Amino acid sequence: MPKIFISYRRSDSRKDAGRLYDRLVEAFGKDNVFKDVDNIGLGTDFRGALREAVAACDVELVIIGKTWLTVTDEKTGGRRLDNFGDFVRIEVESGLQRDRCRVIPVLVDNAAMPSADDLPPALRELAFKHAAQMRDDPDFHKDVDKIIASLGGAVLVPKTPVGFNVYDAINRFFALTEDKAWEEARAPLAEIRTSGKVPRTFNVDGHEADVWAAIEAEERDREYGVLRQMAGQPNTRRLWAALQDFWQSYPAYDPDNLARFQEPLVPPPRVKAIPSVPIQEPKPKPPVAQPAPVATPKKSVLLLPEAFAWVDIPARNRLFQKSVPAFRIAKYPTTHAQYRVFVEAGGYRERKWWTDAGWAAREREKWTEPRYWSDSKWNGNEYPVVGVSWYEAVAYCLWLSEALGEKIMLPMEDQWQYAAQGDDKRAYPWGNTWDGSRCNNRVGGQGIGKTTPVRQYEGKGDSPFGVVDMAGNVWEWCLTDYETKSNDITMSS
Predict the structure, then answer these.
(1) 171 found inside a domain
(2) Whole-model pTM?
(3) Are the C-beta atoms of residues 335 and 381 closer than 8 Å to each other?
(4) What are the start-end ranges of the H helices in 107-203?
(5) What whole-number distance in Å separates Cα of residue 70 and Cα of residue 388?
(6) How far apart are CA 278 and CA 385, in angstroms?
(7) Number of domains, the chain
(8) What is the per-residue burial (b if ≥16 Cβ within 10 Å, else e) of 165-182?
(9) Which of 102, 174, 293, 347 could form a Cys-Cys staple with 408, CB 3.0–4.6 A?
(10) Are residues 247 and 387 in the same domain?
(11) pLDDT, tens digit, for every residue of 393-426?
(12) How far apart are CA 395 and CA 398, in angstroms?
């Protein structure tokens, strides 16, 4: 009988791992299926404990959902999978290093198999493993039957145990659910499923879905309760980081608006400002953009919040191509943390930073901050700021120019396109072949439904000059009007 280890990321596929565990226990026995490493002793190296747990197994099932590859650490903005201490990385790496261990990727929630280039070097072998698919109901149990058969287990033929009364089991199930003993309710539910005597009026799949939804909600509320307690303490400085970690498992869940405890940046004189203004406005008219400065970048590099750097773009004087003088452009889109400095410095109250048309729009629309500013889905510190209009982008650049003593403005269309494509006018920043793994995108409806940190795809989808995120993630503003081709900041449309 093979011993099976289930590797999964809680924020990505906890329910799928739990349902698979229940079925594998039915087929192989509880002593042969391992899902969580419990009771790691104080002072014990957890990395060693995880490796030993995987080493004791013959099969490792790696459950991969839509965010398994991309989930990030809110403290650093980097992918968890790139962290050497990440539990999932240790588990998968340990399995791949052992010849005796059969590593099987299991795709859930319509996730795609990661390519080798998407994975850290130590995990790239995973990309070449034949993957199993595990769909949701009504196909879940059929898919799990195939997995069990491939592992040499017998798919249980429903058989009523001697003395088993299905109605007694149903009564036990309902009694447990009435007491909200959700974990305990899984046992009679499994007995009912395998009995072969399920009444037509008892929907096993439906009740199973209800139980798992209740388990997840109960765990979510327990963890959120800890955050509530933190919010009631005199010192709340650790609350924002804790909320960011909580959102990894339960995105955007915040019924008490604990996001109001977001840690503010220190205001001037230690100005942390930004020179990049991209961001999406909910209309498809403008082309993408990023700011293009023309002055000494030293002060801005020292004062601006992470992530920030200038990229020098050389002049273009090629035959049959429009000349473009040398300039500098921000390496990354403007982040939420960077734009916050402008907001907190009174950028929406000071008339002097706005053009006439821009101030009129601000007054008319009653702007006091960008759209979606307080929406936790979009406002991580290293995530690109969104909901910024062209007028706001220009005001931000004018304010930033004075704050830093540098000439900073949105890039003209020719500058942005040259920085993105180089001299060969390639179709994408990385070349002429589409590769969805190089940027945050929604091609084929497979996107994650939100933005990603501005450094997440650095080194994968960079332009020929090393500028990041010039495809995907967000739309960016250019100085150039899309229709008139004017670069005049005083224009009224």
Answers:
(1) no
(2) 0.47
(3) yes
(4) 140-150, 166-178, 182-195
(5) 25
(6) 8
(7) 3
(8) ebeebbebbeebbeeeeb
(9) 293
(10) no
(11) 999 999 888 877 788 899 998 899 889 988 877 8
(12) 5
